[in-house]
Write a structure and sequence with these properties.
Length: 134
Amino acid sequence: MNIKKIIAPIGSAIALLSSATVAFAAPGPIGPPLLGPITPGPGFAASPEGLIEFILRLVLAIGALLVFGFLIAGGIQWITSGGDKGKTESARNTITAAVIGLLILASSWAILNLVLGFLGLTSLEGVINNVGTI
C-alpha cells in the first residue's frame, strides 16, 4: 500500500479544518433562556475525574480484547502449523506474548486498586478531588 495514498487525504482534511473562519454570532441568547444548570445525560462524563476513570476502563477493556485476540491467533497458528518447527515456534511466541500482556494488564489494574485502597479511596474521583487538600 502506497503511503502517499494514506497521507494525502489526511493532509487535505487537516488543511480544510484549519482554514475555517470564525463566525460572529449575534449578542445574547436566540432561543429560550436556560432553566437551570445543564446536566449531562447518560454516556457523558459529569466531571474530569469521571472522564479519566472512563478512559482507564476503556483502555483496560481494549487491552483485554487484544490479549484474547492474540491468544486466539496464536492458537490458530499452532493448529495450522502442520508440525513445521518455525510456525510452531512463532505460534508459541505469540501465545507467550499474549500471556505476558495479560499479566501486565492484570497487575496494573491490581496495583491501581491496591494504591487506591492504601489511600482509603474507592475510585479515581476521590484522588482528583483530594489533590488540593494535601
